[in-house]
Amino acid sequence: MAKVRWKKMKKIVEPGLNGVEKSFKDAGPYLGLGFQFAATIVLLILAGSWLDGKLNSSPWLTVILGLFGGFAGTYNLIKTVIELGKKQDAKEK
Questions:
Q1: What are the Cα distances from residue 76, in Å, to 4, 37, 48, 64, 69?
Q2: What is the pLDDT of residues 3-31, one digit of tens each?
Q3: Residue 59 preceded by cis peptide, ω within 30
Q4: Chain centroid offset of residue 76 CA
Q5: Residues 6+ apart with CB under 8 A from 55
Q6: Among candidates 38, 62, 64, which has minimal Cα distance to 50?
Q7: First-to-final CA distance of the chain
Q8: pTM for the complete prediction?
Q9: What gap in Å lies between CA 65 and CA 69, rounded to an integer?
Q10: In degrees rounded to 5, what are phi and psi of residue 38?
Q11: What is the pLDDT of residues 24-47, one digit of tens each?
């Protein structure tokens, strides 16, 4: 009976990531950013519309909160991408 080499066996049992799996693993942190960006804008527009209905100030609060949502979403998107880029650069070094 031949002696089993555990290092070779581990490679067989736990193969490395193939191209598709590696792509999804690398893209994973970025996949929710678009939804987060859109949700920020939509929620603030809906809040502005609701406040306009309550305060009878149509369409000013919807416009103001919509613009604020756009700026806040863009800021958050850029900040998150920069942080993820720094983490990826640190991991590669």
A1: 52, 8, 20, 18, 10
A2: 656 555 555 544 566 677 777 777 777 88
A3: yes
A4: 10
A5: 61
A6: 62
A7: 44
A8: 0.68
A9: 6
A10: -65, -40
A11: 777 777 888 889 999 999 999 999
Token digits of residue 39: 């949700």
- Kindly state the DSSP code that residue 58 receives in the 8-state scheme: T
- Locate 34 and state its tokens: 């678009």
Largest CA distance in the chain: 86
How is 2-44 classified by DSSP, letter by letter? PPP-HHHHHHHHSPPP-HHHHHHHHHGGGTTHHHHHHHHHHHH
User: Number of C-alpha atoms within 13 angstroms, CB side, residue 86?
Assistant: 5
**DSSP character at residue 57:** -
Contacts 24+ apart (CB under 8 A), 56-65: none
What are all long-range contacts of 26-33, with beta carbons under 8 Å and residues at least 24 apart?
26/88, 29/84, 30/81, 30/84, 33/77, 33/80, 33/81
